[in-house]
Design goal:
Layout: H1 27-33, E1 38-41, E2 47-50, H2 52-58, H3 62-65, H4 79-90, E3 94-100, E4 111-118, E5 126-132, H5 134-178, H6 183-207, E6 218-220, H7 222-234, E7 242-246, E8 254-256, H8 258-276, E9 284-291, E10 296-298, E11 305-307, E12 310-316, H9 344-354, E13 358-364, E14 367-374
Parallel strand pairs: 7-9
Antiparallel strand pairs: 1-2, 1-5, 3-4, 4-5, 6-8, 9-12, 10-11, 12-14, 13-14
């Protein structure tokens, strides 16, 4: 059977054929269940069919997709068009790896492997399958972020051991000298004390990176955490910025340390506020939460894959992050601020890594997003707090 302008899927058969025998499995149901986006195109590159994964990928329903040509969904000059023509000319499958599909319609960072194959029973008809690389690349980058956090941990431990103790001796000697010198020299001893105190404070900040006991975690309501962070920010450094909250009210609890989450999101919100600047008249920070099942990864100290379905985002409309520092964004002492220490995002990477999560950044002018994926809380017996079973 065939509809006008539509590559028809095989008709759905009864599950039981003559004599009660089990009928062949319906290929249309198999196509719908595939997790990879699949589009069927006619000879003019008009989209004539799409599966559920394609609807999710392009964030539009099947009827809307069928009104478009594939060129409408791709960035200008996309190599996918050439790939489609090659598949038609060769009458065989053609693959292209790590193709950038990013566009204002579907998002800035959408890298995918693209597979094109002709439909043998359709004149110039073609099937296009996408395999998104963003998640796989995210896993690779997360290993780099954890390596950066470990290097900071070693640095913090070294500073605490090798610098803090001698500083105490220097300060003590300066205090002893202060009682036996004249007023002019006393100003110098006070300078020594003040400067050693300042270095001790810097070293104390580094100590939070040192490897210690496992993080004490419990069931935490992320919305309460974000409310507290927002209140603190609006009372101080972000009083000139409008906050937007896009929350999933049914979100299950996160398995985390509440104090560390507050520290994590305060750092991200403070970075966003500083990026926007004090002179901005339309500064906006969006805090969002969502449930996104499907991301699983192996965490340090575990041999099994852990699900990371909880997504928390901090988004700002500042000028964006320079491309040349994106690859090293979470390394210690990497900063774009004149007076910055470059420790804020290194601390974010460490806290997220200690919780077995993922932190990612996507940045373009007026839209920078820090996205954090974390595990949800599971009660005793493997049952989730919201009643779902593991």
């Amino acid at each position: 059977m065939r509809e006008t302008g539509h590559i028809a899927m095989p008709a759905k058969e009864n599950r039981r054929g003559a004599g009660g025998q089990k009928a062949a499995f319906d290929p249309a149901r198999l196509l719908a269940a595939l997790p990879n986006p699949i589009l069927a195109l006619d000879g003019r590159n008009q989209i004539v069919d799409a599966n559920a994964a394609a609807e999710d990928f392009f964030d539009m329903g099947r009827p809307a997709l069928r009104r478009l040509r594939i060129e409408d969904l791709l960035p200008f000059g996309s190599p996918v068009i050439g790939l489609i023509e090659q598949a038609r000319e060769r009458r065989g499958a053609v693959n292209e790896y790590r193709v950038d599909l990013g566009s204002p319609r579907i998002g800035a960072e959408r890298v995918a492997d693209v597979h094109a194959a002709p439909l043998l029973d359709e004149a110039d008809g073609l099937v296009l399958m996408l395999q998104e690389r963003t998640i796989a690349d995210k896993m690779d980058r997360q290993l780099t972020h954890r390596g950066a956090a470990r290097s900071v941990s070693a640095l913090g431990a070294m500073l605490a051991h090798e610098i803090k103790n001698p500083l105490a001796g220097i300060r003590g000697a300066a205090q002893l000298l202060e009682s036996s010198v004249n007023d002019d020299d006393r100003a110098l001893t006070r300078l020594i004390c003040d400067e050693t105190d300042r270095i001790v404070k810097l070293v104390s900040r580094m100590e939070v990176f040192s490897e210690g006991l496992p993080v004490e975690r419990e069931s935490v309501n992320i919305h309460n955490v974000l409310d507290q962070v927002k209140l603190s920010a609006q009372s101080g450094f972000a009083r000139h910025i409008r906050f937007v909250e896009t929350y999933d009210p049914s979100l299950p609890p996160v398995f985390a340390n509440r104090d560390q989450l507050i520290q994590l999101f305060l750092n991200l919100v403070k970075n966003a506020a500083e990026a926007i600047g004090v002179d901005a008249i339309d500064g906006e920070i969006e805090l969002s939460t969502a449930f996104k099942p499907g991301v699983r990864m192996r965490t340090p100290g575990s041999t099994s894959l852990v699900s990371l379905p909880l997504e928390f985002c901090v988004r700002d409309n500042g000028p964006g992050i320079p491309e040349d520092i994106m690859a090293n964004l979470y390394d210690p002492f990497v900063t774009t601020k004149v007076s910055g220490t470059g420790l804020g995002l290194a601390l974010v990477a460490k806290i997220v890594g200690d919780h077995g999560g993922v932190v990612e950044c996507e940045s373009q002018p007026r839209r920078t997003t820090f996205r954090i994926l974390m595990p949800m809380y599971r009660a005793a017996g493997g049952t989730l707090q919201d009643g779902r079973s593991t």
